[in-house]
Amino acid sequence: MPDPRERLDLLLNPIEGTLLSINERAYELAMAAAQAAADKKAQDISVIDVGDQLAITDAFVIASASNERQVASIVDAIEEALVKLPEKAKPVRREGERQGRWVLLDYVDIVVHVQHTEEREFYALDKLWKDCPVIPFVDRDMVEAGAAGTDAP
């Protein structure tokens, strides 16, 4: 059985040209969480490979929303999407739901941060982890919309 921390040699960061340290399960969880956030109109979605810097998780998924209700909606969508995966992933810990300004979902392999836009700007997690590789995420709906646009006369 392969080591769960095995590198995904096929996942190259096109910007940095470096191999990612994220394992396959973490990658699948991160992409599913990012897509669920995108489906709820989250803004500035980023997936960061923090595996070489942190022993506690492989990736952060960070998304923003303009109000507390949207933060809650995005969090709910992420939880619903990940529990529908074959491994039925559920967070081992969640924080910040009461205030609704910054909700953290800890899935061990990934940690999801859904932040109000103001908190995202103030805490600047993207800048804090700027030395870590960014994992490319492309919203499925944007790809489908682009494909539909190219078929039009």
Automatic annotation (TrEMBL):
Give GO MF terms, alphabetically.
ribosomal large subunit binding
**What HAMAP family does the database record attribute to this sequence?**
Iojap_RsfS
Taxonomic path: Bacteria, Bacillati, Actinomycetota, Actinomycetes, Micromonosporales
Is Protein transport among this UniProt entry's keywords?
Answer: no
**Name of this chain's protein:** Ribosomal silencing factor RsfS
Q: Name one GO biological process term.
A: negative regulation of ribosome biogenesis
One GO CC term of this entry? cytoplasm
> What are the boundaries of the signal sequence?
none
For this UniProt record, give its keywords in alphabetical order, as a comma-separated list: Cytoplasm, Repressor, Translation regulation
- The yes or no answer to whether the keyword Cytoplasm is present is yes
Locations listed in the record:
Cytoplasm
Subunit annotation: Interacts with ribosomal protein uL14 (rplN).
The entry assigns this protein to a family as follows: Belongs to the Iojap/RsfS family.
Pfam families cross-referenced by the UniProt entry: RsfS
Q: Which InterPro entries match?
A: Iojap/RsfS/C7orf30, NT_sf
State its role: Functions as a ribosomal silencing factor. Interacts with ribosomal protein uL14 (rplN), blocking formation of intersubunit bridge B8. Prevents association of the 30S and 50S ribosomal subunits and the formation of functional ribosomes, thus repressing translation.
